[in-house]
Amino acid sequence: MHLAYPAVLAALLFAIGVYGVLARRNAILVLMSVELMLNAVNLNLVAFDVWLRDTLHAGQALTLFTIAIAAAEIGIGLAIVLTVHRNRGTSDIDRLRDTAEPPQPWDTATEDGATTDDTPTGEKAEATA
């Protein structure tokens, strides 16, 4: 088997993945592009393992580790994207640049940590005692 065919295919897959990461605005498509780049790396690992006729098959073993890491990455990444989409209403990366949590209507604390309710501190302590 010629090494050029899988190497060129892997380079094309990796280039498509880089384009997807840089050009896409949807977080799910960015995760899919990262997976495409990892698959290009896996293709190179297996192709060079076959080409070198490695008796330990180190390239194939590294491919299994890469697949396991990719599965964990997509699981955690998808959970984060779904949580952000639930909280913010969008998965557009350009709109998610501000990582601060939006203010909630029940959050009445001021900057110095005091609450804005009208109950004096002494009355609150007596009511809870």
Automatic annotation (TrEMBL):
| Catalytic activity, as annotated | a quinone + NADH + 5 H(+)(in) = a quinol + NAD(+) + 4 H(+)(out)
Entry superkingdom: Bacteria
Principal localization reads membrane
Q: Keywords for this entry? A: Cell membrane, Membrane, NAD, Oxidoreductase, Quinone, Translocase, Transmembrane, Transmembrane helix, Transport
* Bilayer-crossing regions: 61-84
Q: How does it sit in the membrane?
A: Multi-pass membrane protein
List GO molecular-function terms, semicolon-separated: NADH dehydrogenase (quinone) (non-electrogenic) activity
What segments bear the compositional bias annotation Low complexity? 107-119
Q: What class of enzyme is it?
A: translocase
Note down the stretches annotated as region Disordered: 92-129
What is the protein's quaternary organization? NDH-1 is composed of 14 different subunits. Subunits NuoA, H, J, K, L, M, N constitute the membrane sector of the complex.
Task: Give the family from UniProt.
Answer: Belongs to the complex I subunit 4L family.
Q: What is this protein called?
A: NADH-quinone oxidoreductase subunit K
